[in-house]
Design brief:
Number of strands: 4
Structural class: mainly alpha
Helix content: over 70%
Radius of gyration: 24 Å
Distance between the termini: 87 Å
Shape: globular
Order of helices and strands: HHHHEEHHHHHHHHEEHH
Strand order of the largest sheet: 1-2
Largest sheet: 2 strands, antiparallel
Number of helices: 14
Length: about 425
């Protein structure tokens, strides 16, 4: 395998894997913030316990996801220096804003939220989780704006073979980034909804003593699934008006784009690979299954007894947890593979964006990063499963520290 293919596969593994963490993080942060709002307003003990339990799972997923994001950025600089050299002045702008404006603020306020239980005013503590949630949205927005520019470059000019930013507003309002942001936002809610419903179904299936806790959690998860499943496809479908014409093999627009690229860049096949169409098919199929599950949930939701006692329904929700992940990965393949052979559509080819480094070095980094991501994913799944299975009584987030035994006092005798 040559250096170009190794670099492409490595980016696919790192970016795709990191995105799985991001989706659950976005969705769970929102649901935890909503639950804490309810707990703060009503002083509800069960909702406060729900915040601690689901918040602990959120923190686990966030912490491991941070590592995957750092690794992804490292390999981006290692393998794709050609892209940095030609388009870094534009592509790097939203990524820099994501790091400085969003990520650092999000991480700082999350730390304050984690260690502020019982130490901060309850309203201030509530404000912290909402700041975390909103900055998570902002972080996702900047990243998707950067990716949207790769799909549909706007707001730039080429000067001596280098892209120069001319209109930041055009870059930030690029429809391929903005629509993708809302698509991912509702996709994250869908992921968190299925996750919450699946974990709750597991405990209800086992006839847990925490029936009320997981009945409420199940309802929140199902309501989230029902509310998010249609907006996901709306914002996904709206993006098709901006999709590259080369993704439509055989269409008039596709043939015209092929002829234009041949005239400008020389002979070659500029049509999207077949994997893009396969990704689109799997994405639509996964979403269709989620709609069916949402319809079943819509029928079950008014009947609390069925939520608690329905073992077949519990099994369905447990099995359905991977569905949003399957659809997201397939959609990502459709979006990214369908852009090929371009790194920046119509501006920079992928083969010209790869670093001029020894293939052996890319092979080493590919093996190392792939192995690291496999370990991180396995650790994340194990930790989530372990703490989810233990239930709310084992949640340590926000729990009062155990009392420190006092030193025995020696009474002198005379």
């Amino acid at each position: 395998m040559d250096a170009l293919m190794l670099a492409r596969v490595q980016f696919a593994v790192t970016a795709g894997s990191h995105f799985l963490f991001v989706a659950l993080t976005l969705g769970l942060a929102t649901l935890v913030a909503v639950m804490q709002t309810r707990a703060t307003l009503t002083r509800s003990a069960v909702h406060e316990r729900m915040v601690r339990f689901w918040g602990q799972l959120y923190v686990i997923n966030y912490a491991v996801g941070i590592v995957t994001g750092l690794v992804m950025e490292f390999q981006l600089g290692l393998n794709w220096s050609g892209m940095t050299k030609v388009t870094g002045g534009v592509f790097g702008a939203p990524l820099a804003m994501e790091t400085v404006v969003a990520f650092f603020v999000e991480a700082t306020f999350l730390g304050l939220w984690i260690f502020g239980w019982g130490r901060l005013n309850r309203w201030l503590h509530l404000a912290l989780i909402w700041v975390v949630t909103l900055t998570a949205y902002l972080s996702a927005f900047f990243v998707l704006v950067a990716n949207g520019w790769l799909q549909r470059p706007v707001g730039y000019e080429m000067v001596n073979g280098t892209a120069r930013l001319t209109d930041l507003g055009a870059v930030l309002s690029n429809p391929t980034g903005v629509l993708a942001f809302f698509h991912v936002l509702f996709g994250g809610l869908l992921t968190a909804g299925f996750f919450m419903a699946g974990v709750s179904a597991y405990h209800l299936f086992r006839r847990t003593a925490e029936t009320e806790f997981f009945r409420r959690s199940m309802r929140i998860g199902l309501v989230t699934v029902i509310a998010a499943v249609i907006p996901v496809v709306i914002f996904g479908g709206t993006q098709f008006q901006y999709v590259q014409p080369t993704k439509s093999a055989g269409s008039d627009k596709g043939l015209a784009a092929q002829a234009d690229f041949v005239a400008r860049f020389g002979p070659g096949d500029y049509m999207a690979p077949q994997q893009a169409q396969l990704g689109e098919t799997i994405m639509i199929f996964g979403w269709s299954l989620m709609v069916l599950v949402a319809l079943v949930a819509l029928v079950k939701l008014p009947f609390g007894r069925w939520l608690v006692r329905g073992r077949i329904f519990h099994t369905l929700m447990i099995v359905a947890v991977p569905l949003p992940y399957l659809s997201m990965i397939a959609g990502w393949v459709f979006r990214e593979v369908g852009r090929q052979p371009w790194m920046v559509y119509g501006v920079l080819k992928t083969r010209d964006a790869v670093s001029d480094v020894d293939p052996g070095l890319i092979t080493v980094s590919f093996v190392a990063f792939t192995g690291l991501f496999a370990v991180l994913i396995a650790v994340n799944v194990w930790l989530l499963a372990r703490f989810a299975r233990k239930g709310p009584e084992a949640a340590r987030l926000g729990a009062a520290p155990p009392p420190v035994p006092s030193e025995p006092t020696l009474t002198p005798t005379f």
